[in-house]
C-alpha cells in the first residue's frame, strides 16, 4: 500500500525508481480510509539520505501512511539547504497541537556530548514529554534511543574504548514478541556509535524488555512493556554504502578509525559492500506499524 509524500521531495524520485508505492496528497484524500499519521524528528546531518531510508521502510505496509517531518527550532541544521527545510519540514511549534499514530526520533552525531550540553536538549525533552500524551508509539534510533533511555528511564550512557562500526550478529532472546515476528533467530545489524547505554540498568528496569543479545554490540531492540517506546541502538535503516561513506569521512578527517567489522567483502574497503540486513529492516518497521501503531491507535483521537 502507498506512502503519501510530497511530489517534489527529492527522496520521491529515488523511491519511484525502486518501485516503492507512492501516492500524492490529492489521490490520498479520495480514499475512504484513515491513513496512519507518522511524525519524524530528523536529527541526522544528511537529512535527505535519512528521509529516503525511513520512507523506504515505512512504505512496506498494507496501510496508507502519511508523514510529517520536523526539525529543531533551537538549533539550525548546517548540512541541508534552508530551502529544503522551508519546503518539506515543520517545527514542533507547528505540530504540538496534533496527535500522531507513530513518531520516529532519529540518531544524531552528538553522542559523545553530555545530554544536557546538546544545543537542542531542552527542546528534545519537551518533545519527548509531549509524545507521551500525543503519540501511540515512538521509535527511537541510535542516539535517539540513548536519549529516550536517559530521559524516560534515567539510564545513563558510557563511552566505548573504540567506536563500534560494522555489522554485528544478534540473537533473539524474546522471539515470541510481536515486534520481531518473522525475524530470524540470528540476524545482522549495522552499528555506528561511540557510546553504550548501561546494559545492567536496562536489564533491571521493571518497565523495559530486551529482545535480543550480542556479545560485541549489546542489545539492539529494547521496548517498554507498554509498547509506547521502542529503542533501537543501531542503524537498521542504513543503505548498503552508508557505513563506507562514514568510514571514508572519518579517514578524510585524519581520525584513527578501524575498518567497519564484517562489512566490506573480503575485508577490503575497495570492494562494494552488500546490504545483508534489508529483510530484517522491513520486518521491524512493518511489525512496529502494524502491532504497535495500527492495532493500538484509535480511529479518532
UniProtKB/TrEMBL annotation:
Reactions that this protein is recorded to catalyse: L-homoserine + acetyl-CoA = O-acetyl-L-homoserine + CoA
Gene3D superfamilies: 3.40.50.880
Pathway(s) annotated for this protein in UniProt: Amino-acid biosynthesis; L-methionine biosynthesis via de novo pathway; O-acetyl-L-homoserine from L-homoserine: step 1/1
InterPro entries in the record: Class_I_gatase-like, HST_MetA, MetA_family
Keywords recorded for this protein, A-Z: Acyltransferase, Amino-acid biosynthesis, Cytoplasm, Methionine biosynthesis, Transferase
Localization terms from the record: Cytoplasm
Catalytic EC class: transferase
Site (Important for substrate specificity): 192
CDD domains documented for this protein: GATase1_HTS
One Gene Ontology term, aspect cellular component: cytoplasm
Residues the UniProt record annotates as site (Important for acyl-CoA specificity): 111
Function in brief: Transfers an acetyl group from acetyl-CoA to L-homoserine, forming acetyl-L-homoserine.
Protein name per its UniProtKB record: Homoserine O-acetyltransferase
Organism: Pelagirhabdus alkalitolerans
Name of the gene: metAA
Amino acid at each position: 500500500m502507498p506512502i503519501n509524500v510530497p511530489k517534489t521531495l527529492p527522496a520521491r524520485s529515488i523511491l519511484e525508481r525502486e518501485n516503492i508505492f507512492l501516492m500524492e496528497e490529492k489521490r490520498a484524500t479520495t480514499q475512504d480510509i484513515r491513513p496512519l499519521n507518522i511524525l519524524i524528528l530528523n536529527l541526522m546531518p544528511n537529512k535527505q539520505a535519512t528521509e529516503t531510508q525511513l520512507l523506504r521502510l515505512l512504505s512496506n505496509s498494507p496501510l496508507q501512511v502519511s508523514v510529517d517531518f520536523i526539525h529543531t527550532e533551537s538549533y539550525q541544521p548546517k548540512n541541508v539547504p534552508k530551502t529544503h527545510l522551508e519546503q518539506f519540514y515543520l517545527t514542533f511549534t507547528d505540530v504540538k497541537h496534533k496527535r500522531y499514530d507513530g513518531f520516529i526520533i532519529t540518531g544524531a552525531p552528538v553522542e559523545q556530548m553530555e545530554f544536557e550540553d546538546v544545543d537542542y536538549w531542552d527542546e528534545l525533552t519537551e518533545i519527548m514529554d509531549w509524545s507521551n500524551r500525543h503519540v501511540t508509539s515512538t521509535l527511537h534510533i541510535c542516539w535517539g534511543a540513548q536519549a529516550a533511555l536517559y530521559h524516560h528511564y534515567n539510564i545513563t550512557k558510557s563511552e566505548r574504548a573504540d567506536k563500534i562500526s560494522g555489522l554485528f550478529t544478534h540473537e533473539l532472546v524474546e522471539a515470541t514478541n510481536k515486534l520481531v515476528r518473522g525475524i530470524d533467530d540470528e540476524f545482522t545489524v549495522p552499528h555506528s556509535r561511540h557510546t553504550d547505554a548501561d546494559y545492567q540498568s536496562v536489564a533491571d528496569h521493571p518497565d523495559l524488555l530486551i529482545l535480543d543479545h550480542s556479545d560485541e554490540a549489546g542489545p539492539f531492540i529494547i521496548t517498554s512493556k507498554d509498547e509506547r517506546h521502542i529503542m533501537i541502538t543501531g542503524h537498521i535503516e542504513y543503505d548498503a554504502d552508508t557505513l563506507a561513506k562514514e568510514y571514508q569521512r572519518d579517514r578524510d578527517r585524519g581520525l584513527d578509525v578501524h575498518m567497519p567489522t564484517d562489512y566490506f567483502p573480503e575485508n577490503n574497503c575497495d570492494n562494494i559492500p552488500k546490504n545483508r540486513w534489508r529483510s530484517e529492516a522491513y520486518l521491524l518497521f512493518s511489525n512496529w506499524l502494524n502491532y504497535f501503531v495500527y492495532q493500538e491507535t484509535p480511529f479518532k483521537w
